[in-house]
Amino acid sequence: MKHEYFNTKEIYEKAEAEGNYDLGDVLVSYPDSGFTHRWIQPPVACYFVSSLDPDGNTNVAPISMGTAMWGEPPDSGWYYSFNVHNRRNTRHNLMNSDECVICYYGSELMKESWITGLALPLGISELDVAKLTPLASVQVEPFGIKECPVNLECKIVNRIAISNNTLFITKVVGAHVDESYKKADMANPFEPGVAGIDLLFETSITGTPPRLNYLKMDLNNYLRTDETLGDSKHWIGTFQTWMLSELERGRIDRSEYKELIDLNDQWMKNRNPIDNGEVKEKLTRKLKEICWREI
User: Fold this and answer.
1) Chain centroid to CA 2: how far?
2) How far is Cα 151 from Cα 101, in angstroms, rounded to an integer?
3) Among 27, 31, 33, which residue's Cα sits nearest to residue 11?
4) Tens of pLDDT along 79-105?
5) How many Å apart are CA 194 and CA 77, to the nearest integer?
6) How far apart are CA 71 and CA 78, in angstroms?
7) pLDDT tens figures, 137-181
């Protein structure tokens, strides 16, 4: 591979100095700088964020910058983070409320998603204008959307300021899943979950006027990782359970197992690559060899 380097700090400093933004949105393109931010941002599944303003008016915004994250005990559960420009009504609402609903939509709602993203006046419900139906929530005040197969009730746990944007981190406290999609998912050995609703993935903004381009997921082309490598009982497990699994399946023998456990113990006692470099090198070389060993 031959790589071309881009100093993204300089690219966006130049764009900012030249006012090369669309009301704050970063739309730097190849004609502008020979670079596009799509080399930074991969396609992200699109969803609505439903919120209420201080007067109780519903706001629905299409969002495509965010991701789900797992939190372990003692406060286990799923979290969802997303970024909102400070000028948007959604941001105003979520600075005054700790609740929202994340609503995944399929490709059949593409027109509705565009309508909800239009510059509607403050207080006018995108839900009504887009002819969408409110879905009552259980643990939060904002409505979900009945036409969306998945609605996640969320509580905001943190807000982080980022360059005239705000990153909201929420905890999912409830989920509404369309029964037909759940039934189909349970019958699928790969259990694609939300991917089974024909999601739209934002891939680029091009053209004059600028418009979104989407891709959809191909559910007929699954790739599965190697079942003969790694912990045989757990998703990741521990180093010891991984090595025990390799011993049981015959990838390593008993003497190798003891050697690897001992090397790992030595490395855990001193992970300084200078002081304990010999152990690090031995452990690395051995793990590399067994990971590519045929059985």
Assistant:
1) 29
2) 6
3) 33
4) 999 999 998 999 999 999 999 999 999
5) 17
6) 6
7) 999 999 999 999 999 999 999 999 998 999 999 999 999 999 999
Per the structure block, which two tokens stand in for 84? 């909102």
How would DSSP label each residue in 122-161? TT--HHHHTT--EE--SSSSS-EETTSSEEEEEEEEEEEE
Q: Cα dist. 136→124, 231, 254 in Å? A: 19, 42, 59
CA 257, CA 240: separation in Å to the nearest integer? Answer: 9
Strand partners, 210: none
Query: Treating both helix axes as pointing N-terminal to C-terminal, what angle do 239-249 and 254-269 enclose, rounded to 10 degrees?
Result: 170
pTM attached to this predicted model? 0.87
CB atoms within 10 A of CB 95: 14
Strands (E), the chain: 44-45, 47-52, 58-63, 66-71, 77-85, 99-104, 134-135, 144-145, 150-162, 165-177, 200-206, 211-216
Q: Which residues pair with 77 in a beta bridge?
A: 71
Which amino acid, one-letter code, is at 108?
E
Q: CA nearest 204: which of 66, 30, 47? A: 30
pLDDT of residue 104: 97
Helix (H, G, I), strand (E, B) or coil at 250: coil
- Which backbone phi and psi does 124 adopt, to 5 degrees? -80, 130
At 202, which helix (H) or strand (E)?
Answer: strand 200-206
The residues, ordered by sequence, that sit 6+ positions from 101 with a Cβ below 8 Å of its Cβ are 49, 50, 51, 137, 140, 142, 143, 144, 145, 151, 152, 153, 154
pLDDT tens digits for range 29-61: 888 889 988 898 888 899 999 999 999 999 999
